[in-house]
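Q: Hi! First time asking for a complex rather than a single chain. Here are the components, and I think there are two in total. Is that enough to go on?
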Amino acid sequence: MATLEIRDLHVTVEVENGTKEILKGVDLTVKQGETHAIMGPNGSGKSTLAYSIAGHPKYTITQGTVTLDGEDVLEMEVDERARAGMFLAMQYPVEVPGVSVSNFLRTSATAIRGEAPKLRTWVKEVKESMAALHMDQAFAERNVNEGFSGGEKKRHEILQMELLKPKIAILDETDSGLDVDALRVVSEGVNRVRETGEVGTLLITHYTRILRYIKPDFVHVFANGRIAESGGPELADKLEAEGYEAYTKGGVSA
Amino acid sequence: MRQKASNTEAMAQAQNIPVGGTTSGSIAVAAESTVATRMSAPPSFDVADFPVPHGREEEWRFTPLERLRGLHDGTAVATGDGVKIDIEAPEAVVVETVGRDDARLGKAGVPVDRVAAQAYSSFEKAGVVTVPKETVLTEPIRIAVHGQGGVAYGHQVIELGAFAEAVVVIDHTGDAVLAANVDYILGDGAKLTVVSVQDWDDKAVHVGQHNALIGRDATFKSFVVTFGGDLVRLHPRVTYAGTGGEAELFGLYFTDAGQHQEHRLLVDHNVPHCKSNAVYKGALQGEDAHAVWIGDVLIEAKAEGTDTYEMNRNLVLTDGARVDSVPNLEIETGEIVGAGHASATGRFDDEQLFYLMARGIPADEARRLVVRGFFAELVQQIDVDDIEERLLAKIDEELEASV
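A: Yes, that's all I need. Here is the structure of the assembled complex.
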């Protein structure tokens, strides 16, 4: 069973007047089949955690380890991490001019699976996943994320999650900017992948709203660059009622 | 009223995103031509009619004159071993080498700048390739221009008789300092596809004016493909000899570190009910890669029923590259079907690379995916298999050189 282990992770980023530490010792274990929600106020470092694990060059790891089944993730290139089974659904997916969605998906699936998917089954697979996410087939011929609405971008991210079948999926604020209908469709997509029991999900969010659709096994409160408290789903109810104030008070404001 | 509508449409389609250079567009509703008046001298076959450019003229301001190796100031003397030309043509085609006094030379257009006039004033022999009327070729005519390291001036005429159909590939390779013009003369109802490939070695300098004169109901389709050279400056121009003519001007360029590649189009809608469509796409990478695209379209007062569109897209792959893209549409009549232009320059940046790599795609493949995708719609239309394959291989080669 795949396990992502994050130990004492410290991450810095270059800012205008020097280097700033964003993550200050994160410990977290996510196993295949589990769903963890990471909740926290803006600026607490949630997205930094997501991008650091995926290998974005902007972030420097200064201390700690990240392993997937014992393999050192931090030693891997960005594409190697993806091929090892890591997936990051981005909060702001990037436009890629000149590359159609269908070409992108197939190239990506070929890289992840290690061989080109058989054309006939592939076309069917993509069609079904798109239909389940209420995406028009014409979508496949558009350029990646170019001119997509906020909701289309998020659906496209979850479409990739469905097709690439990662061992560990990190969803970075997938719920932000979605109306209730779009949130439901996207959540159903995530749940379809979760129901296979093959994926460990790290759901990063600011709001408890998405947790009505995607039920977490564990909830972690993120504040000041580390996990401040962990618990079960009931912790989300407490946050819903009380907000993040208890965790930000006394901490250094980001 | 119709004039206003067409202008609004043109403006709505204009899109400008400057990246390390200028991307500007303009639409003028002109009382008189400004395309002609902003040239520093009127068109002429005689080089003496043009002053030596100093670089601030509108038509020279983007071009590094010092890298023209004397083509612009009369100091570049033909060396006799400039280029070697091999022509391969199906049997029905007449291939000739003619003297300067041949009446068929210079019929498609007059040189508009000093170097084009220098070429016309300096060549000793010209090539004339004729496809007789109603002859439909099934194999392309291939003109291989191979640089031998010297200086050369040239002139080539390609003439199709009425209702003839042909594909011509002009393939430039090797090293040379070359100023050469090409005339395309299309008889009524003729169909000509031209692929001009500039696959020069790194040091080559190539300047030329390509004049197409399109007969009544004739179709001219041109692909200008520029990869190589230190400096390439081409001037494709279209005029119409009768109504119903169509011009499709496609271009691809891949500008590397230090290269200057300049394409200056002019379509003169001088006849009613003609069409033109220009699509040029370029990728740039490396320090001081410089691409220039000028798209002049003139709709003359008498050219009612004109339908025209022009577009330039640039993909900047690395820092340090510069694009100057200037579409320019001048409309002297409102009685037209449509007129529009667009120019956009985008970057392939670290965020795009990260996104693709985060989906398991290795960096070099990500770059290839983006650039191939960008050029695909043009490459697929060329329809000459070996040229298509060579272009794709060339794109891959250019990308590998950058890693």
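A: DSSP finds eight helices and twelve strands in chain A. Let me know if you'd like any chain examined more closely.
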